[in-house]
Amino acid sequence: MVVSTVIAFAPARGEDAFKAFKQLDSSVKMPKLNAFSPNLGATFEQSTVRNVSLEAKLTNDGEPMQQGLSWRVFSPIPGDDGKLPLLASAEGGSADFQLEPGDYFVNVSFGRAGATKKLMVPREGEVEKQVLVLDAGGVVLNAVSGSDTGIPAKDLKFDVYSSEVQDDGERGLVIADVAPNTIVRLNTGTYHIVSEYGSVNAVVRANIKVEAGKLTEATIQHRASQINLKLVSEPGGEAIADTAWSVLTSSGDIVAESVSAFPVMVLAEGEYSAVARNKDKIYQKDFVVTAGRNTDVEVLLTQ
Hints:
Blueprint: H1 14-23, E1 50-57, E2 69-74, E3 86-92, E4 95-99, E5 102-110, E6 113-121, E7 130-133, E8 136-145, E9 149-150, E10 156-165, E11 171-178, E12 183-187, E13 189-197, E14 202-210, E15 215-222, E16 224-232, E17 244-249, E18 254-259, E19 264-268, E20 270-278, E21 281-289, E22 295-300
Parallel strand pairs: 1-7, 8-15, 16-22
Antiparallel strand pairs: 1-4, 2-3, 2-5, 5-6, 8-9, 8-12, 10-11, 10-13, 13-14, 16-19, 17-18, 17-20, 20-21
């Protein structure tokens, strides 16, 4: 406890004030400041650092997690940047922090799953072990073309969104560019998954529920296939170089363009037209994409 002493002087008026200054003998020695200062050092109590043990579980009745956790301890008072200052951190399983008595926020994360708790470290008495329940599970995403045709991992990606639609009509992005067969750790709830096969128009959306303490394996079915385009002089011939390509839907909308002798693209199931431009000449062929059937589309010069 800091003790401060305030001495108030009543202001003098007119000649009284002048006489007061006149009567002040400059030879009088004023006492040193520390003669009036209390012994502040004797009033401070030595703060005692306390050990705080933390552990996290996926569910209320689950076992404490032994790995994969990220712990963060924050001050409850925002800094100049408006953020809570990070005071300590740890990685792994259960954690122990040496903290002075006071209030804190403790956060634990497991992948994209997390939990936060307000912590008060007392000056006296036992500090109970703090248990945070993540209420989290995991999901593994994959996809096939058609009924069971495998898709190369390099051609697949997943984005995970919240299930709720925001005021602007969009969903909140949770995690982007998730590779197939990757465990994504999430808090319990329903999530909106967007799966992209290739980079043209093969996109599938699905809602997936994540349950606490469980690993959900989800396989999304794409109605799409890989198409190889070739401009040839005869069936089965070599692809002719310096060819520009456009792929149009049955309604005439352009969905893909390429400048390549042998472009490869993934298209959603449906009817299309391939337009090839070579040496100021245009060649065209209608074709159909069937899910799960990767095919070559040959456009003949003689057409």
